[in-house]
Automatic annotation (TrEMBL):
Superkingdom of origin organism: Bacteria
EC number: 3.2.1.52
A GO MF term: beta-N-acetylhexosaminidase activity
Catalyzed chemical reaction(s): Hydrolysis of terminal non-reducing N-acetyl-D-hexosamine residues in N-acetyl-beta-D-hexosaminides
Protein name: beta-N-acetylhexosaminidase
Enzyme active site: 340
Leader sequence residues: 1-24
Keywords associated with the record: Glycosidase, Hydrolase, Signal
Pfam families (UniProt xref): Glyco_hydro_20 (PF00728), Glyco_hydro_20b (PF02838)
Organism of derivation: Streptomyces acidicola
Gene Ontology CC: membrane
Beta-hexosaminidase bacterial type N-terminal domain: residues covered: 44-173
Amino acid sequence: MRQHRRTTRILGSLLLVTAAGAFAVGAAPAGGTPEGDTPTPLGRVIPAPASVKTGGAPYRITDSTRIHVDDSREARRIGTYLADVLRPSTGYRIPVTDRQGTGIRLKLGSKDASLGDEGYRLDSGRQGVTITARKPAGLFHGVQTLRQLLPAAVEKDSVQPGPWLVAGGTIKDTPRYGWRGAMLDVSRHFFTVDQVKRYIDQLALYKVNKLHLHLSDDQGWRIAIDSWPRLATYGGSTQVGGGPGGHYTKDDYKEIVRYASSRFLEVVPEIDMPGHTNAALASYADLNCDGVAPPLYTGTEVGFSSLCVNKDVTYDFVDDVIRELAALTPGRYLHIGGDEAHSTSHDDYVKFMDRVQPVVAKYGKTVIGWHQLTGATPAKGALAQYWGLDRTSAEEKERVAAAARAGTGLILSPADRIYLDMKYTEDTPLGLAWAGLVEVKRSYDWDPGTYLPGAPGSAVKGVEAPLWTETIVTPANIDFMAFPRLPGVAELGWSPAATHDWDAYKVRLAAQGPRWDALGIGYYRSPQVPWTAAG
Ligand code: NGO
C-alpha cells in the first residue's frame, strides 16, 4: 500500500513538472519514508509553480540556521514572519539578520523583470535556500512555497522531531492572474476581527491576494459609519436566525486591513446596493420610499429590499458611506454589489448605478459589482464579478461577454464551481444547494481563461471564491467549507493553464491534509482525494 501510494505521488510530480514545461525532471525521491528523510518533491506545492527544476542535494534546517535578509524593513518583516513559522516546531532559535551568509536568504530587488510584482525564484541546495523577488509580495509568496516544501509538522506549535529538509532545485514562479480572491460574508453571520485574521492566514498560505468583505446585507450592517451611526448600532444588531450580530468599529476595520496587507492581501469592501439593504432601511426610516422603517430581518430570503432610487436622501447616504469607506481603504477597489435587485425596476436600477458609480470614482476608487451591473452601464475601468452557472441563460452570459468585449474586466466566481457555501454532497451538514452540489473535482476542473463563451481571455482578471454565511457560523464551519476547495481556486488563479491536471492535482491536494491537521483546520475528507493515512 505504501509502495503504491509513493508511486502515485512520484507520478503526480512528474506529470506536473512535464506539464509546467520545466527544463529537467529530477531524480525521484529515493529511500526513507515521505514522513522521514525524503524531502517533499519540489513542485508538490499548491498552487503549482510555473516552472520547477529538480535536482541537487537538499538543504537541511538545523539549530544553526539563520535567516539572512536584505537591509530593508520589508525583507526583515518577511524574514521575521518566516522565523515565527519555523521556531515553534523546529525548536531552533532561527535568528533573522541582515548580515550576509548561507542558510535561508531572502533577497529583494531582483533585476529579473519576468518575475513581475508577485513572482519569485527559489533556489535550494546543500548550502541553503535563497528566495529572490523584485517586490515584497513576491518574497512573501516564495516564503509560502518554502513552508509547503517543509514537512507538514513544521506548522505545529510544539517542538517536532524533523528532519527539516528542503529538496534541491529551482522554482521560478509568477501568477497567471492578478486577482486571486476570497469573499467572506460577514453580514449573514458576523465574524470577529480575530476570526477574519485566521481566514487571512489560511488564504495567504495559497497566495490569495484579495479579501473581499461583504459588509452589508438585509440581515446586518457591519461597518461603523460616523455620519449614519444607526447603520451599525441598530442595523448591525442581529444576524440570520437572530442573535447578537455585531459590527466593526473603524479601528477594528483598520486592523483587518493592516493585517491583510501584512500578508499581501488587499481588502475589497462591499456595500451591497440598491437591493440587499434591509439593515440600512430598518435603521433610517427616511431611506424608505414610504418613510416607514421595516423591522430588522433574520431570515434568508433575497430580493425583497431596495433603496429608494428617486429620493435625494438616498444619494446623500450613498455618498457618505462611500466617502467614509473609501477613507478606510488603501486598496483600489470598492464593491457596490448590485445583485438580485428584484425589488428595483430595471429603469431605476440603471438610474441608480449611473448616479452611484461616479461617487466611487469621486472618492478615488474603482467600481466592482456583481455581474448584474452589466445590465446597466458599467463605468470605465469597472470590474464585473460573474456568479452565474453552467445553466445560466445564453442571453445573460452574452450580456456579460459583450460588456467584457467592450472593456469591462471580469472576476469569475461561478456559483456551481467555486461558491464555497455550496454543499459538497447531499449529506454535507452545512451550506446551500441552490447552485448544485460542488465536490472538489468540480470546483477545480474548469479553465477561467475559456469559461465564459464570447468573453476574451484578456478580459478575465482572475477568480474569486465567495463564502456566503447563511449557514456558516463558526471558524470551524469556514474551515470545513473552504478546505479542500479553496486551494483549488487559488491554483486556478495562480498556476499556468498548462499545469492543470486533476490527477496530478489531487495528489498534491492530498499532501496538504497533514498540514491542515497541524494547523488545526478541520477539512472535508472528500472521497475524490487520495488522502494519506496520516492525513
Ligand atoms: C447569491 C446571492 C447571495 C446569497 C448567495 C448564497 C449573490 C451574488 N447573491 O450570490 O445573497 O447569499 O447567493 O449562495
